[in-house]
């Protein structure tokens, strides 16, 4: 089917399409359009398929596409971030120092490592105290 957008609410993301042959207005949600494209404008032509929504008791646009083939997609209009030029590796004059990648790997390991638990220290201290008290008691 073909038609034109007759009403569109940008904030709520829906509108109505007027079908060309019968002139009936059919509900359309933004999800029925290709999300790569910018939102539709009133008067813009669309080709669409409809389906009956039993829950709402009305016919709705299930899938739609703009008729204007020259319409630019929003992704094409958006600036694509460019990759920075490849860095050149510097020759390390100091051979005694490991390359930065290895230094960072060790630092990451140290940061991720769980803190040392001193549970065994306190167990040994408790056993020592108990041994001293028991030794004094049995003398």
Q: What is the fold's blueprint, element by element?
A:
Elements lengths: L1 E8 L4 E6 L5 E5 L15 E9 L4 E9 L7 H4 L22 H13 L6 H19 L2
Antiparallel strand pairs: 1-2, 1-4, 2-3, 4-5
Kindly describe this structure.
The chain is an alpha+beta fold. It has a domain of 70 residues: Beta Barrel (OB fold (Dihydrolipoamide Acetyltransferase, E2P)), CATH 2.40.50.140. The chain contains 3 helices and 5 strands, in the order βββββααα. A 5-stranded antiparallel sheet has the order 3-2-1-4-5, with no helix packed on it. It is elongated and about 110 Å long. The mean pLDDT is 77.
Strand order of the largest sheet: 3-2-1-4-5
Class of the domain at 2-71 in CATH? Mainly Beta
Radius of gyration: 35 Å
Relative helix content:
25-40%
Instruction: Report the total helices.
Output: 3
Counting helices, strands and paired strands, the structural category is alpha+beta
- Broad shape: elongated
State the total count of DSSP E strands: 5
CATH fold assignment of the domain at 2-71: OB fold (Dihydrolipoamide Acetyltransferase, E2P)
What profile does the largest beta sheet have?
5 strands, antiparallel
Assembly state of the chains shown: single chain
Distance between the termini: 104 Å
CATH architecture of the domain at 2-71: Beta Barrel
Q: What would the average pLDDT be, to the nearest integer?
A: 77
Please mark out the parts with pLDDT under 50 across 5 or more consecutive residues, or reply none: none
According to CATH, the homologous superfamily of the domain at 2-71 is: Nucleic acid-binding proteins
The helix/strand series, from N terminus to C terminus, equals EEEEEHHH
């Amino acid at each position: 089917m073909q038609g034109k957008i007759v009403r569109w609410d940008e904030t709520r993301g829906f509108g109505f399409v007027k079908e060309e042959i019968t002139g009936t207005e059919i509900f359309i949600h933004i999800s029925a359009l290709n999300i790569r494209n910018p939102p539709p404008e009133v008067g813009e032509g669309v080709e669409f398929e409809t389906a009956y929504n039993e829950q709402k008791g009305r016919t709705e646009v299930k899938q739609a596409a703009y008729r204007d083939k020259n319409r630019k997609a929003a992704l094409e209009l958006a600036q694509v971030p460019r990759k920075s030029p490849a860095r050149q590796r510097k020759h390390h004059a100091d051979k005694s120092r490991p390359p930065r990648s290895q230094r960072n790997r060790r630092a990451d390991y140290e940061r991720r490592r769980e803190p040392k638990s001193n549970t065994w220290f306190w167990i040994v201290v408790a056993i020592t105290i108990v041994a001293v008290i028991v030794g004094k008691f049995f003398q």
